[in-house]
Amino acid sequence: MSQERATVHLPTSVGYLLKEASSALRSAMEAVLRPLGMNVTHYSCLELLAQRPGLSNSELARGAFVTRQSMNVLLVALERDGLVSRAEHASSGRALPTELTPKGRRQLATASAAVRAVEVRMTASFSDVERAGLGDLLSRAVSSLRADHPTA
């Protein structure tokens, strides 16, 4: 008895291609961040704090796609290195808001330029219309998946 199974054609599978692009992007970002003494999670944390000062450990973890425990370890290191500051006492609840220090802003500026160069290289063969379209398509894909599973 032969059992047929649905197969995924990897060269045209949108999910596989997205994963491959994500992996290639992360590798390229790690390569430019490593000489700066950073990794993608470190950079993501600083970028999130620059754009949304005062985020809690949990909010930073969600935004950087890591566990709260991993983010806490990173925040302790960033605070020790003088890149972020955290309030000693929460103004409400238990969350300690975190903010970038001037040193953290300087490190972020250097890292952002390096990461931006990777993004420019990644989309160098795209027209402006294609670049905008890709952003729109990816945003819509994320929205569609999150609509089906709101906790994602």
Automatic annotation (TrEMBL):
Q: Does the keyword Transcription apply?
A: yes
Q: Which residues form the HTH marR-type domain?
A: 11-143
Under Pfam families, the record lists: MarR_2
Molecular function terms from GO: DNA binding; DNA-binding transcription factor activity
Instruction: Cite the InterPro entries for this sequence.
Output: HTH_MarR-typ, MarR/SlyA-like, Tscrpt_reg_MarR-type_CS, WH-like_DNA-bd_sf, WH_DNA-bd_sf
Q: Does the keyword Transcription regulation apply?
A: yes
Gene3D superfamilies noted in UniProt: Winged helix-like DNA-binding domain superfamily/Winged helix DNA-binding domain
Query: What does the UniProt keyword field contain?
Result: DNA-binding, Transcription, Transcription regulation
- Kindly give the SMART domains that the UniProt entry links to this protein: HTH_MARR
Q: What GO biological process terms are annotated to this protein in UniProt?
A: response to stress
Q: Know the name of this protein?
A: MarR family transcriptional regulator
Which lineage do the record's taxonomy fields give for this organism?
Bacteria, Bacillati, Actinomycetota, Actinomycetes, Micrococcales
